[in-house]
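USER: My hope is that you can spare some time for a protein that puzzles me. I am handing you a single protein, as its sequence and its fold in token form. Walk me, if you will, through where the backbone shape changes along the chain. The protein I mean follows directly.
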Amino acid sequence: MILRRLATAFRKQDWFTVAVETLIVVLGVFLGLQLGNWNEARHIDSQRELVEARLLSDFALMHEDVLAAADNHEDVIEALHILRGAIARGRALPEEDQAIKTALSIGFSYQSPIHRSGTFLELVSSGRLDLISEEELRVALLRYDTRAQRVLFNLNQIRNYMHTNMPNLHAYKEFAPLARDDRGRITLSPVETYDLEGMASDPEFRNALDLLIENQTWIQLNISGQEAALEDVLQVLQENTS
């Protein structure tokens, strides 16, 4: 319609009409572009809000996991120290019995609560880190992910050392019969009896216990460091989303 009027105005040399119609076309194109840019900006803002919400969820869950793992691991290390003290003393105090059984049952175990954010990895793989507009947040996420990879490597090295260079704790303990949980599933049988005198008279066992405590302590330090790193990222995320 506008083009038809423009063509007619050109033929009649009606320059005023040409100018007005041209201005209308230019304004229409301009407003269309502005509307498109506005819609695109709204879409990007919506994506950023979704990404930040997902990141906050990721890191909140990872923080819960690492807190629980740190608490459980401290219990394991304390139990191992109680076992070493009882061996050095040559006898176990009545109140130490359960801790010693815990040390002998799960002294080699540890949780691995170190995770990388799935949302962050998705942004990296898709080349959409631009959706994280705040430089402080982008740096915090990159720093955390680099640290998480390093800690996972450290834990793997410690685990391999523990499993290949130290004898297990089975020689001086006896497990209870097959155990099941409330759902009827097989679970770890508790230690029923142990030979503290045999442990005390076995220097290789005592050395292995010392190494185990040292390695489990290094694991705890890695977990605690990751706990602090998670809290740093959570603080930045909460500031951005508040």
Observations:
- Residues 15-89 form the longest helix (75 residues).
- Residues 61-241 form one domain.
